[in-house]
């Protein structure tokens, strides 16, 4: 039977101290009744003998040392779950805020999740199509992967996140169930309205469960929001066999909330004032992505974080890079050139890309084409540096070709409309079209058979072929190849 305590011993910001606790445990949910009618929730975050430090999921306004009743519930933070959460908008604690009533279900799950047996993990395979060429072609998102987006203040990461939500799919011919869990932490009301409006107007809201923690919501709620969202994702993926894409924005707000609470607790700070357990907290979130053996479902993560002062060595992106399998980096100079999405190709990568593309997944030429585009774009930087010293007119013909390729690549391949949804085939075909700017002998990262199949000459101009049959050599050569 739950025990109710009258009064508190100390209040410090979002933290309260209760002494004389019996049978309390770490992460236990606590209910407060203030002045006999105002109800609030909290969570035990530290225990010292009979003393409990409780983090309040609300403001501590009106809470006094003598006017508050405290009741230990005997269970950790739990939320009600149902497949009907798709299409709903909830707050950071998983409570509906869309006016459509509560989530009706007998299923409750602990938001802290259950440890996943590493032996039962399956290696991520197959891809998720975002409709964005720079991602699908060069840093492909694989099911079960965690692929963060490193952004900066003022860059269009919110717009990019909304576009991914509205366009993401398992591919045109997939019959598998797909859904999206979108969690926003510390967002302003106009940003929240932008997400709601974009999802509704695109028709994507029906397969999206949206969790919103506003900037004026309590800091403690911000810490629980990603865990609530991932609990919903795991329920849909592993109990209803869906492939779930989880987008978490902005993990910087989550980390800064952790720093604020840590400071209130009087803990010794580590790098940049963040607590020493920042790495383990981030890992507890990121490692909840994956595929479980024998279950036809997956959880894929795209955490978005803003790098303070565009510093990729800052503790938040630095630690995130250790845990995740690659990164997508947004570039401020490309944004200044009105290129959207301003994805910086060279520092971006997807470490699992090779295992979910190619024949049987996307197309046989995908890996070689991506390698060649990376290589060619790296040489564009060398040509631009040389042009800045000796002038563009003094460049060799091949360097001028690389400058032309770089301009077209940024404007047409990286750049695309915010509502433009490209298929993987369109992305690959566009890559061959851009490589046609360069002489064939420069394409040293592509297998000769793939060059013969997808690349041809028309007169004295080299171009690509969308139809593999049209690009095959004459019959005499054909017999030598096959």
Automatic annotation (TrEMBL):
Residues 460-482 are annotated as: Disordered. GO terms for molecular function: ATP binding; proton-transporting ATP synthase activity, rotational mechanism; proton-transporting ATPase activity, rotational mechanism. Residues 355-455 form the ATP synthase A/B type C-terminal domain. CDD domains: ATP-synt_V_A-type_beta_C (cd18112), ATP-synt_V_A-type_beta_N (cd18118), V_A-ATPase_B (cd01135). It comes from the Bacteria. Keywords: ATP synthesis, Hydrogen ion transport, Ion transport, Transport. The keyword Ion transport applies. Residues 10-62 form the ATPase F1/V1/A1 complex alpha/beta subunit N-terminal domain. One of its GO terms (biological process) is proton motive force-driven plasma membrane ATP synthesis. InterPro entries: ATP-synt_VA_C (IPR055190), ATPase_F1/V1/A1_a/bsu_N (IPR004100), ATPase_F1/V1/A1_a/bsu_nucl-bd (IPR000194), P-loop_NTPase (IPR027417), V-ATPase_su_B/beta (IPR022879). Residues 460-472 have a biased composition (Basic and acidic residues). Residues 131-350 form the ATPase F1/V1/A1 complex alpha/beta subunit nucleotide-binding domain. It holds the Pfam family ATP-synt_VA_C. Produces ATP from ADP in the presence of a proton gradient across the membrane. The V-type beta chain is a regulatory subunit. Belongs to the ATPase alpha/beta chains family. This is V-type ATP synthase beta chain. It comes from Anaerostipes caccae (strain DSM 14662 / CCUG 47493 / JCM 13470 / NCIMB 13811 / L1-92). The lineage of its organism: Bacteria, Bacillati, Bacillota, Clostridia, Lachnospirales.
């Amino acid at each position: 039977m739950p025990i109710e305590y009258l009064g508190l011993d100390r209040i410090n910001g979002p933290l309260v101290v209760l002494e004389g606790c019996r049978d309390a445990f770490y992460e236990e949910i606590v209910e407060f009744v203030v002045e006999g009618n105002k109800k609030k929730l909290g969570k035990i975050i530290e225990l010292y003998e009979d003393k409990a430090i409780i983090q309040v999921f609300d403001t501590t306004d009106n809470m006094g040392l003598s006017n508050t009743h405290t009741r230990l519930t005997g269970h950790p933070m739990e939320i009600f779950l149902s497949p009907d959460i798709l299409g709903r908008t909830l707050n950071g604690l998983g409570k509906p805020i869309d006016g459509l009533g509560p989530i009706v279900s007998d299923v409750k799950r602990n938001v802290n999740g259950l440890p996943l047996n590493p032996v039962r993990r399956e290696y991520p395979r197959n891809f998720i199509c975002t409709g964005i060429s720079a991602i699908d072609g060069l840093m492909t998102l694989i099911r079960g992967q965690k692929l963060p987006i490193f952004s900066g203040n003022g860059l269009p990461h919110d717009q990019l996140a909304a576009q991914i939500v509205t366009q993401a799919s398992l591919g045109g011919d997939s019959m598998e169930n797909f859904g999206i869990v979108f969690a926003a932490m510390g967002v302003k009301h106009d940003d929240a309205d932008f997400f709601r409006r974009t999802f509704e107007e695109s028709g994507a809201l029906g397969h999206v469960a949206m969790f919103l923690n506003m900037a004026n919501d309590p800091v403690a709620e911000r810490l629980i929001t990603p865990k609530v969202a991932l609990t919903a994702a795991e329920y849909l993926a592993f109990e209803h066999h869906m492939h779930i894409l989880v987008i978490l924005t902005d993990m910087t707000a989550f980390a800064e909330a952790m720093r604020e609470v840590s400071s209130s607790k009087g803990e010794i700070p580590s790098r940049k004032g963040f607590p020493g357990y920042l790495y383990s907290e981030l890992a507890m979130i990121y490692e909840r992505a994956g595929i479980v053996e024998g279950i036809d479902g997956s959880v894929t993560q795209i955490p978005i974080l803003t790098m303070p002062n565009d510093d990729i060595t800052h503790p938040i992106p630095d630690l995130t890079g250790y845990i995740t399998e690659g990164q997508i980096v947004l570039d401020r100079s490309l944004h200044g050139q009105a290129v959207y999405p301003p994805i910086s190709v060279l520092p971006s990568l997807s470490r699992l890309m090779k295992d979910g593309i190619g024949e049987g997944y996307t197309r046989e030429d995908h890996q070689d084409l991506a390698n060649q585009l990376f290589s060619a774009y790296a040489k564009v930087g060398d040509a631009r540096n040389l042009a800045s010293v000796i002038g563009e007119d003094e460049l060799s013909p091949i360097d001028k070709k690389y400058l032309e390729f770089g301009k077209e690549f940024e404007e047409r391949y990286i750049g695309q409309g915010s509502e433009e949804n490209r298929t993987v085939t369109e992305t690959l075909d566009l890559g061959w079209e851009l490589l046609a700017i360069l002489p064939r002998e420069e394409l040293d990262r592509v297998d000769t058979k793939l060059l013969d199949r997808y690349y041809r000459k028309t007169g004295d101009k080299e171009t690509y072929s969308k139809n593999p049959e049209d690009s095959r050599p004459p019959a005499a050569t054909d017999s030598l190849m096959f």
